[in-house]
C-alpha cells in the first residue's frame, strides 16, 4: 500500500482520493478549534497561501479525540477557521485518528512515522507531563498524542517526517520548502 491508495471524506460526503495529489507535497494535519495549538492555523494558511502554487497541499482533518477540543459540526469548524484564520485550504470531515474508528490513512501514517518525542522546551515538557497522567506508556506507541500533529509527504508519496504539535512552525515550513525545491 502507498499513501495514494487512501482517501479521506469531505464534509459533503464525497471522497477525496490522495492519488489526486500525486506529484504534490502533502502536509496532513489533525486539527482542533479550541486547543492551545489552534493558532497554528495562521501558519498553515500562510504556508498554503505562499506555497500552494509551488505544489503544497494541506490536508486538514479536524478531530475531537483530544479533550473534546473540536466539538462543532463540520460547518461550524469551517466557519470558525475562515472567520478567525481566513483559511482557504480545504477541510475534510471530522474524523478519528486513533483507536477502533481511526481513519485507515492514520493507521498507515503512524506505521510510516511513529512517535519520536516532543522535542525540548516548555511546551514539550508540558505535553509530556500531561500525557504521563493520561497514559504512562505514551512514549511506546505510535498513536497521535494531540491536536496539530503533522505528517509530511514528499512528491513521490513517501511519508518523510512527523511533526508533533510542539514543533516550531518555522521548522515545519522549512521542511516543506526543502521538498518543494
UniProtKB/TrEMBL annotation:
Catalytic machinery residues: 35
Full protein name: Glutathione peroxidase
Pfam families reported for this sequence: GSHPx (PF00255)
Similarity comment: Belongs to the glutathione peroxidase family.
Keyword presence, Oxidoreductase: yes
Molecular function via GO: peroxidase activity
Record bears the keyword Transcription: no
Organism: Hornefia porci
One BP annotation, GO: cellular response to oxidative stress
InterPro entries on file: Glutathione_peroxidase, GPX_AS, Thioredoxin-like_sf
Amino acid at each position: 500500500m502507498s499513501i495514494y491508495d487512501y482517501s479521506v471524506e469531505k464534509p459533503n460526503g464525497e471522497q477525496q482520493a490522495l492519488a489526486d495529489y500525486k506529484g504534490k507535497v502533502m502536509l496532513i494535519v489533525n486539527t482542533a478549534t479550541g486547543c492551545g495549538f489552534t493558532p497554528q492555523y495562521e501558519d498553515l494558511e500562510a504556508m498554503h497561501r505562499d506555497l500552494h502554487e509551488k505544489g503544497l497541499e494541506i490536508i486538514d482533518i479536524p478531530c475531537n479525540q483530544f479533550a473534546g477540543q473540536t466539538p462543532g459540526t463540520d460547518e461550524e469548524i469551517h466557519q470558525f477557521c475562515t472567520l478567525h484564520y481566513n483559511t482557504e485550504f480545504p477541510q475534510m470531515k471530522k474524523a478519528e485518528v486513533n483507536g477502533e474508528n481511526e481513519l485507515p490513512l492514520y493507521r498507515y501514517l503512524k506505521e510510516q512515522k511513529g512517535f519520536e518525542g516532543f522535542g525540548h522546551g516548555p511546551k514539550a515538557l508540558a505535553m509530556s507531563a500531561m500525557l504521563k497522567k493520561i497514559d504512562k506508556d505514551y512514549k511506546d506507541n505510535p498513536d497521535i498524542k494531540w491536536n496539530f500533529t503533522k505528517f509530511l509527504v514528499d512528491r513521490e508519496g513517501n511519508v518523510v517526517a512527523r511533526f508533533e504539535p510542539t514543533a516550531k512552525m518555522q521548522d515545519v515550513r522549512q521542511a516543506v520548502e526543502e521538498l518543494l525545491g
